[in-house]
Amino acid sequence: MQQWARFAIIGAMLVTAYLLVLAWQKDYGHANTATPNTAAVVSNDVSADLPNSQNTATVTTDVPQAVNTATQPSAETKTANNQKLITVQTDVYRLWINPKGGDIVRLELLSHDSAKGSDQPFVMLESDKNRTYVAQSGLIGINGPDSNAAGRPQFEVEKDSYSLSDMKVNPSSNGKVSQVLTVPMVYKTPSGVEIVKTYTFTQGQYPILVDYKIINRSQQNWQGQFFGQIKRDDSVDPGKTSQGIFQLGTYLGGAWGTPSEHYNKLKFSNFNDEKLNQKAEGGWVAVVQHYFVSAWIPGTLKLTQAEGKPYTADLQSRKSADQMNIIGFTSPVINVPVGTSMEVNATFYSGPKIQSELKDLAAGLNQTVDYGWLWPIAKLLFLGLETFHKFVGNWGWSIILLTVVVKMILWPLSAKSYRSMAKMRAIAPEMQRMKEEFGEDRMRFSQEMMALYKREGVNPLAGCLPLFLQMPIFLALYWVLMESVELRHAPWLGWIQDLSAMDPWFILPLIMGVTMYVQQTLNPQPNDPMQAKVFRLMPIIFTVFMLFFPAGLVLYWIVNNSITILQQWFIAKSVKKQREQTVEN
């Protein structure tokens, strides 16, 4: 029975390692080549990348022209037809809109650096020779200008540069007052239809409202569909980081959700084979990468002065002629009678995967923060970390406090196990004597050993319990550290300047190995030489294994081991004192 207990402990440790390797390979095991931000080149590729309308069999429109964008494009950057891009800067964004089609062709996140220690903002969207990743929207169909064989509509703009100084107070119906920045663009058809495309930015917020207003002053009804889509090539995730011999980067691909199916992944390679074609009201589509996400959330439709109502959108995915990955939506066919107007909108989000913000945009969008199959535990751990961070203001100390709380919660269960292990350690000499006395008589030895366990109140399998309790917590914390953008580049102290990355000096893994070795010395030592050798190698194996894992995860293990050592030492001392008193009596 004692051998089975030891094998169970070894098995539990190996299962933990195996699950970590699986998680690593699933999310972080792909090769990575960093994509430099070099000067862009103009692309003249033309393909039918816009979605097919329900009322037109052919769509012949060109892709928004790739632009000359350097690392930080200036307001003088021009499109292929020699027109300036529209530059917009808020407190969270710096982005560029192409007036031909009105697409967002570059977007930088001002609150997130491109790399630890860099003063360059993180680039989400861009269109140059290194990467194509843009947010497109427009109107297609019988009268939709984006279905025009001549190409995307050329919008007229009031000016080509907007900043925080252009923001205005916007009182809402719920009494809240916010600062908003609107960027209107106008396109007029020869028949007398005026189309106003407006981007609305809110101070301190990532969601962008994209609104189309069709004013029909022509002599016939206007008919079309609103679409929004994300177009991306197969370039690597710029959020991936190198970790020594490992290259890190989480899931990169498409995702979609509806009120009934909250979160679904769709790999780029399956955009055709498992093509998305789902109708939903309140759905969304997205491209997900490490720590960040870009998503379209269909909005509302209203005619003239009527109240806006949510519309049922057709969620779609496909590969373009040049093998670009496209995921998006189209609205139902919209009819605008002569002399009336119509507004249709959607929300575009491109930024960090902040759960509290994403959950309010659409059902399931916050699940792009993918904590894996242990998400219930991971969410509780993140909630605990977030709570502690509000008080201490440091994620490293938050991890330490969370570890202490977890250990306190598990203390009663683990105390029973450690007490049983301490008793096994105390009776080890008696077991050795019995083994020598009964020699090869295994039946007699087992009977005497079971009798000894019963007399001493020892459960040989109890030593497995603490490790089995810690396994799901340890794995869940791994996903929390890897998926929570709040911990991206988060420093602790001294040389640990990024808890989501490995310890650059390997100090924490070495400390972890020492604590694991000390903890093992407090456990019953195997009588079998082979088992004893495996146990001695475990601290070394796990030290090497943890060299390239996030420093925050290693920190958790160190604190957990340290508390366990103190707990076991006090329990062992208590058991020894009780046995001495029993012998004296």
Report on this model:
This protein is of the alpha+beta class. It has two domains: 2-24 and 378-584, no CATH class; 31-370, Beta-galactosidase, Chain A, domain 5, CATH 2.70.98. It has ten helices and 24 strands. It has helices at residues 2-28, 355-358, 375-392, 395-426, 428-438, 442-456, 464-483, 507-521, 529-546, 551-584, and strands at 86-89, 93-98, 103-113, 121-127, 132-140, 156-157, 161-162, 168-171, 177-188, 193-202, 208-216, 222-232, 241-243, 246-248, 253-257, 264-266, 277-280, 284-288, 292-303, 309-310, 313-319, 325-330, 334-336, 341-352. Helix 3 (375-392) packs across helix 7 (464-483), helix 4 packs antiparallel against helix 7 (464-483) and helix 4 packs parallel to helix 10. Pfam families: 60KD_IMP (PF02096), YidC_periplas (PF14849). Residues 86-382 form the Membrane insertase YidC N-terminal domain.
